[in-house]
Write a structure and sequence with these properties.
The chain contains 1 helix and 21 strands. By secondary structure, the protein is mainly beta.
């Protein structure tokens, strides 16, 4: 059984340009958050903190931790050089090769003579909403219940999901910076406890214009009237 919900008009404030890349720590600079990079085939990760370079390569078989020598300027980026590990960061869009997730930097890393390539820095917004899938982190500032699966998917001209209790779906159109959705249809289950509470919070949020923002950690923030928000993370 479905019941129509009100047509939702979402004001979309998508950034018109790509934000500046996250800068790794440079000599003499204030302490900065950790810089992360990753690659595939073979899988590897790199964390750069103000004090060290921490490399985990070959799907975990290779581990190298060395003191951070400080970043040297390089062409459109930075370079870290140590006897065991050299890291070249180039500011330019990068795909991880395993999904459509895009990062701000291309990273080339040589660990004890073996060179691998991957991506690093902040996560870029998706090129378009169509084809993306998300799960809820919080609604109205309250973390979603761990035992209530949630989702929000944009598939062509249709959106669908579950905010903690009932499935909902409907058409949507993105035009001129505005996303118009609906009429949406939802099932009529009653869910006791947190599931229904968070779902009601989401539907209340979506009854008016909602702005979208994409922080560099790869999340999506929906912001509506009176500053109410829903935070979602990308499902790849």
């Amino acid at each position: 059984m479905f019941k129509p919900l009100a047509i939702l008009t979402l004001g979309v404030a998508l950034a018109g340009c790509v934000p500046a890349a996250d800068a790794p720590q440079a000599p003499g600079a204030p302490l900065a958050p950790s810089y992360f990079a990753l690659g595939t085939e073979p899988g590897w990760t790199l964390e750069i903190t103000p004090g060290m370079l921490n490399y985990d390569g070959d799907y975990g078989d290779t581990k190298i931790v060395v003191a951070n020598p400080g970043a040297r300027p390089s062409f459109n980026g930075e370079r870290y050089v140590t006897p065991r590990l050299t890291v070249d960061i180039t500011h330019g869009e990068c795909s991880d090769g395993m999904s459509d997730r895009r990062y701000r930097d291309t990273v080339t890393l040589t660990a004890e003579g073996k060179t691998v390539k991957g991506c690093g820095g902040g996560v870029l917004p998706p090129a378009e909403l169509a084809g993306t899938n998300w799960s809820f982190v919080s609604i109205g500032g309250v973390p979603v219940a761990a035992d209530r699966p949630t989702s929000l998917a944009f598939d062509g001209a249709k959106l669908s999901g579950n905010a903690g209790c009932n499935r909902f779906s409907g058409s949507y159109e993105s035009k001129g910076g505005t996303l118009t959705a609906g009429p949406l249809m939802a099932t009529k289950m009653a869910c006791p406890g947190a599931g229904m509470t968070q779902e009601n919070g989401f539907f209340d949020l979506m009854r008016g214009p909602v702005s979208l923002s994409f922080p560099s950690d790869g999340t999506l923030i929906l912001t509506g009237a009176e500053g109410r928000t829903a935070i979602l993370k990308r499902v790849i």
